[in-house]
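Hi, here's the filled form for the chain we discussed.

Project: internal
Contact: R.S.
Residues: 479
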Amino acid sequence: MDTTAATAEARVTTRHDGVVDRLPAAFRWGAATSAYQIEGAVDEDGRTASIWDTYCRVPGAVDNGDTGDLACDHYHRMPQDVALMRDLGLDAYRFSVGWPRVQPGGKGPANPAGLAFYDRLVDRLLASDIEPWVTLYHWDLPQELEDAGGWPNRDTALRFADYAELVYDRLGDRVAHWTTLNEPWCSAMLGYVEGVQAPGRRDFGAGMHAIHHLLLGHGLAVQRLRAANSGGNPLELGITLNLSTAKPATDSPADREAARRADGLGTRVYLDPLWYGRYPADVVADLAARGVELPVRDGDLEVINAKLDTLGVNYYFSMLSSGVDEQGRAADADGNPVGRGVLLGLPQTAMGWEIMPDDFAELLTRVGRDYPGVPIFVTENGAAFRDQPDAAGFVRDHDRVEYLASHIAAVARARDAGTDIRGYFVWSLLDNFEWAYGYDKRFGIVRVDYTTQQRTPKLSAHWYRDTIRRVRAEGASVA
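And the returned structure, exactly as it came back:
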């Protein structure tokens, strides 16, 4: 880490430090990234196109026409990035494997050159005393599988299980922590219903079918990985969900109903089948009212209900729910109930997301209460701000420090309330390709100059490193 930058600031303290220090000394600290957002090298070593490579070529789909073709060039600069993680004192690094890099086209044998990259990454992490946390799917579906129907098609779940086993066969002797899917809500809702992320489809029924097949793919992958672990290597399997609170904007019946629906399609439609082997009855009824039936076959829910070892929770913001539109109408042009997010007038990040750490604590407490028995890891949390580097490229991002400190304090408060939370991964290690926002939104605690690819740890990186050291040394002695 750049010691010049580190000594340019006294140790940053926040009003949340006392609460953060209640975290146990054994708490795991990490950072997270995803393959398409940082790797680049989209045409190298046998990698084929993903839905994001295709979507980025759609005029107007991504701000400034940006693509992930180069991104942070992590594919070639990986050793340097692992050295940054080591200097930060991370316990763990959560990264995703690029499906079209490992299994070009989404079918057939593994691509040795693609797997070799992740082989090298895992070995370098372990040599640096950093635990590798593998996410198998972070939205980069091979384009050929989308052409065959994508996640609304049941066959994609079967293909995902095949791919998961290919990756495990190569890395499972050294990787204990596996996440099947990252944020299936985004894949289904943003990709297939709202059309604002890849593959850019707008079909409500297709999105609901995608939900079921994503969850089915998760369950099938869990089965495959457990069966493949014949050598008894350490193995922890989980899934990562982006969750939020769902509260009515007012006490009106319409707003209460909108909040129930938001909770149903945002939280319970995923956690209920994962935990209890059933879809929520009210969600099923809501879908039936729109002429949609989830494509559940005999045995599917038992597969989805496969034993989990961890649950990943991603959190960024919350909104209130309104059951009427801006004109006061309770139904849209097709007669469907209105569901609209309402802001509270709180400070916002550069994404326009309100900063709500108290809701984060409330969410974690609710998940631990309603879906007990599995340790929770915060697998993503962070914020984009309008970073302004000085002449040396150093960013004094006090706003991000405050965001991270307040949200880590929320984790500590949820632990105090009895929720079994065992780790926190900041999003993100690096500034990167922020999906449909291109390169304008910077979430990293390390600045990336996209022209030179120079990495410069921001003030938030130094604060995160110092917080990790302090909690390790002085944190609570409880497990």
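Let me know if anything looks off before we file it.
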